[in-house]
Amino acid sequence: MSVHSRLYQIAEQQGGYFSAGQARQAGLSKALLSYHTRQGRFLRIRRGVYRLATFPETPYADLIVAWLAAGEKAVISHESALLLYGLTDLLPAEIHLTVPRTASRRRTGVRLHTARLSDDEITFRHGLPVTALSRTLVDLIRSGIDEEWIRQAVRQALERGLVSETTLQEEAHCRGGRVAAVIHRALALLTPS
Q1: What does the buried/exposed string (b/e) look like for 82-97 if buried means 16 or more CB atoms within 10 Å of the residue's CB?
Q2: Confidence label for 89 from pLDDT (cuts 50, 70 and 90)
């Protein structure tokens, strides 16, 4: 398989975007990356982040660019994750990413959260790593988001089969405290009296 085919396969899964590191992994040297950018085949979006010039635009481009800029260990989380699940009408003012440790650089429009996520707390949506829905809800509750948003997300997630009531009950039991109280209240509103 050619270098360009490998790079295309990577970028195709990410809305046409790729990082300089991914280009190197595909076998493209820094010099060739610069050459193809000058020739107009690749568009430099920001330092270390590129896009295939002929690839159609994606509705989640801002999330993809923020994720690639933060590094591949970053995970879309909080309000941004809820947006990827299609469970909110709320457009976050910032892109929320969870990273293994605090990044040294601040990024305009990006909010970094620090946490160690287990493999079962990460899934993929629209080609992006995103916190699993139950973890997303826990993060949102802990961040103090209005309970109405949690109730709306829980109701829609259950209706769409994105999460089960049992999973949410287990999450509430494991986390306890405020997280459990908010989840129990959201579930109680869905149960007919």
Answers
A1: bbbbebbeeebeebbb
A2: confident
Taking the C-alpha atoms of residue 65 and residue 48, their distance in angstroms, rounded to an integer, is: 10
CA quadruple 155, 156, 158, 162: dihedral sign: negative
Q: Cβ distance 132 to 61 under 8 Å?
A: no
Is 131 strand, coil or helix?
Answer: strand
Q: pLDDT for 54-71, tens place per residue?
A: 999 888 999 999 999 988
d(C-alpha 156, C-alpha 30), whole Å: 46
Q: How far is the CA of 88 from the CAs of 54, 124, 193, in angstroms?
A: 31, 18, 26
Q: How many Å apart are CA 135 and CA 148, to the nearest integer? A: 18
Single pTM value for the model: 0.86
- Condensed to tens digits (0 to 9), the pLDDT of residues 17-47 reads 999 999 999 999 999 999 999 999 999 999 9
**If residue 4 lies in a helix (H) or strand (E), which one and from where to where?**
helix 3-12
Q: What DSSP state is assigned to residue 121?
A: G
